[in-house]
Structures are given as C-alpha cells and as structure tokens.
Amino acid sequence: MGFVKENFEGAKAAHARAVYKGSGYTPEELPGKPHIGIANTFSENSAGHTHLRQLADAIKQGVWQAGGIPFEFGVPSTCAEVAIGTDKMCMDLAMRDLVAGSIEVVSSIQHFDGLVLLSSCDNIVPGTLLASARLNLPTICCTGGPMLTGCLNGDPFMLCDVTEFCYGKASKGEATEEEIAAAEYQACPTMGACPSMGTANTMQILTEALGMTLPRSSTIPAVYTDKLASCRSMGRRIVQMVHEGLTPSKIITREALENAIRMDLAIGGSTNAVMHLIALANELDIDLTLDDFEQFSRTTPCIVNIRPNGKYGVDSLHGLGGVPAIFKQIEEQIHTGCLNVCGKTLGEILKSAPAKPNEIIRSLDNPMTADGGLAILKGNLAPNGAVIRSSTVRPKMHHFIGKAKVYSSDREAHEAIVSEEVQPGDVVVVRYAGPVGAPGMVEIMEATEAIVNLGLDESVALITDGRFSGFCHGPIVGHVSPEAALGGTIALIEDGDPIEIDIEGRRLELQVAEEVLRQRREKLVLPPPRIEKGFMRIYAENCLPPEQGAAMQKWKKES
C-alpha cells in the first residue's frame, strides 16, 4: 500500500514543518515518512511506569530503523496504592478516560499515522486500549511487563502481602517496626507491575490476548533485556503496519474479545477486566455483556497457578511460553483466526507455542478451579449483575447467608472489622461507592484485606457497589448494580438483614419481603453528591453503569 503524508506536503504545510524544525526534526523528511506517535505514560510515582523512558527510547530506535519518524508525548498515569483509604481513591477508575482522551486529542491534532501506546498499570493499560479503538489508527499497545517477585524470610513476597498486612495485623498494632520495615523493603524489588494477577498484569496479558501487542511480549519482566529487544521490534513493526493499513478494528473483533474473556477466566484475572473489556467493546460498537462472561465461565476453568489464585508470580510465565502457552491449553475453545499486530493469526502463533502443561500453566484436565475464575451473580440485590472472583473463595463460603453490617466507606468498614464490631456470620455492606455515588467507583481495599489477613474469609463476606483491586480475593462481591446512588436495592439494606451469596446458583439476594423494601424505598433520601465540580463531577454525570463498562464513551447514562 502506498503512503502519502498529506498534511505535511506542499507550501500550505510550511508552518507545520517549521514547528517540527523547531523541535529538532528535518523539514525535508517530514512529508515522505510515517509519523509515529509514542504515548508514554512514564511517571516517577509508580513502579510500573518508572522504567518506561528506556522502553520508549527502544521503540523510537525501531521506528527510525524502519523509516518512520517517532514523536514521543506524555500521558498521565497514577498508582492507586498511594490513595488507598483516602477520599481520592474514587478517582482511579476515571483515569482510564483521561488516558484515552489525552491520547485521542494529541494524536488527532498532530496527525499521527500510527501509534505505540506504552503503559503498565491498572486503569492506564485499558485507557490505551480505548484510545486505540477510538482512533482506529495502526496501533501497537506496548506493555511494561511485571516486576520480579520479592522474597521475605525465604518465601516469595509481593506488594499484595504488604497490603493485607497493613490493613490486617499492622492496623491492629500486632506488628513490630522491624516487621513493617522488612515488608516495605522486600515487596517491590524491581520496577514493573506488581507480580500477582492483579488488574495491571491481567490487562497486560489481555492486551496480548486481543492481538494488540506482539506475541509473548506482555509477560516479559520489566527488567529483562528481552523487553528492550521487544520494544525495538514494536517500533519497526508499527511502521510496517502503517503501510499495510492494519488498524485495531481489524484486530479487536467480536471473536478477539471472546478470546480475551476466555484468557481472563483461564488466568483467574481481576474482576476489573469485566468492565474494561465491555468498555472496549462499546468503543467498537460490539455488543458484549455480563452474560458472555457468565456463559464462558461455565466451560473455561482457571488453569494458571498465579497469586491470588495460586502461589507463583506473573514473572514466572515468560520462561514457560507466556500468553501463547496459556492459549495452547485452551486452544479448542478459542478463535484461532484472529489477527495479531504482527500480521499472523493466533493459530499461526500457536503452532510454535509450548504444548506441555506444567505446575504453573496447567491443562484443562488439571485446573486450579473447575469453573472460570469469576462468576456473575444476579438477584433482587443486583438485578443488573454483580461480580465475584470465585476462584479465590474458600469452598465453605460458596454458599453463605449472613447478617448485614452496613457502612458508607471503606475506612468505616475497615475500622469496624479491626475493632471486632464485625463478627463471624456477618456480611459487610459498603455502599455509595459506585461510579455515580463515589463518584468514580472506589476500590474497597482496607476492609477486604482486613477480612483475609485477620482470618475472617471463612466466616465473613463483603458486598459493595464499588469495585476491588486486582490483588483482592476472598468472599467479596463487587459491581453491585444498580448502585446505591441510583436508588438500587443496596441502598435499602439495614443492619441485620439476611443476605444470601450463592456462587454455584449465581444468586445475590436480600432476604427481605418486597413490601418491606417498598416501604423503605418510599422513605429513602439519597445523599448529596460528594464532589460537586471538576472532572469527577463530569464523570459522574456522564458515566455508564459497571455492567456497561463504567466509562464515558457515549456521554450518557442508561435510560
């Protein structure tokens, strides 16, 4: 396919060439070569993004080698660990829209011909995917890779261990200063995304499952030189993609999204992936719903032995064959005709993938759990749906009926758990934490981590209209919809109400008579907005509910 750089040719474009001359480029070469935007989410406030400058340099080298011209630009990124327990945690999910919008605007104004979108963490990776779909320019999403697993007292140790420790024993004063210091120093030994199957690594892996990054690249540890070599290859490949006209709409098809759902189930991925994949499908006008996740969860088991479903770190996957090796084990369930940005089909890629299962990447006949890593629950408490990471729930909690203890914030619920106000047999309810109520959808971390660290995960459950970190595990149900701020049933719960959680039956029920609920609804007074101006107010007024992706693509609520 021929290439013409229309916006930089002729006398009418002299002003544009002059601006780039002022940036250090040679005006003569600007019209004839593909302009490649490199969106870099580098920051010094996140281990997952601190190393991205070096990766961006490698990408630029590849672009130059292939005859393109790279233009690096900055995109904001955050690390939600710093915001846990504060009123700013609500902003984390909305970062996805800021990332997508930043890339959309810069790339459009600068008339880039292709993009490499460089990111690592929770909502930043899906933000780049939304941007790629929205712009539909030839694009590669380059993921920063996992950090290496730490070690404490001879055992594997990760940031998720510190989080549980902080909001469990440490918050009760049952940890020494030496123990706290040791945890801080050993949890994050290198740069990269935290090595459990949290949202960051889930979304990095799903980026490859969708075909939007090169085969085997998403699981390369951040500090390996293989990562630099892979980035250089991406720089060369994106220039070829511009000439080929290979765009995201040809890669992220309905079939590719189904492959990503299967992969999410096989790895026991973060519950946040449900919202991110649905939001991505919305960008491409593809109908994807919670029912798709529910359907596939019945037939695709969790086969990857990675925390929190197992005991290993994501950094162990690269040497075993990475994403292709996982796909190989579920090959009979996936669409092998889907394209990868490398130009090959998934079937062609899998011809050279390791086929033998092992302790970490298991077979369908020897899974970690018999069904998928998550379950979609519905009932009078969540008529539109709710999500639980079923692969991390202890067997005795798969069907649980407990008495409600109702709270309006993560911090309030955590304090109740630590002070032993919450007792075995209770269901902790954290509400007004959804997309509109928070606004922005809070990660309920303090309370959930306390439940696990204090050994209550066989006797206490939690439900919320908020969401969870990818680290979180146990009998915790999130994304309850409709949310409390929209008058959902969760807003009507009172202390002592019986709540039933039934994973096998896929039910979430408030066992209170309909007439009683009707009377409560007549008296319900919703609280005023917690944030009344700024971006988060705009988000709250325009976001979709969680079962539709909780993003702002269509700038309207469900009617």
Can you offer a commentary on this structure?
By secondary structure, the chain is α/β, with parallel strands linked by helices. The protein folds into 2 domains: 33-149 and 189-350, 3-Layer(aba) Sandwich (Rossmann fold), CATH 3.40.50.2300; 375-548, Glucose Oxidase, domain 1. It has helices at residues 14-22, 52-65, 95-109, 124-135, 159-167, 177-186, 199-209, 225-244, 248-251, 254-267, 272-283, 290-297, 322-329, 346-350, 410-418, 446-453, 514-523, 535-542; strands at 35-40, 69-74, 114-119, 139-143, 150-152, 155-157, 375-379, 382-388, 399-407, 426-430, 461-464, 476-481, 498-502, 507-510. The strands form 3 sheets. It has an 8-stranded mixed sheet with strand order 7-8-12-11-10-9-13-14. A 4-stranded parallel sheet has the order 2-1-3-4, sandwiched between helices. Strand 7 (375-379) and strand 8 form a beta hairpin. The longest helix has 20 residues, at 225-244. It is globular.
Q: Short summary of the structure?
A:
By secondary structure, the chain is α/β, with parallel strands linked by helices. Helices cover 33% and strands 13% of the residues.
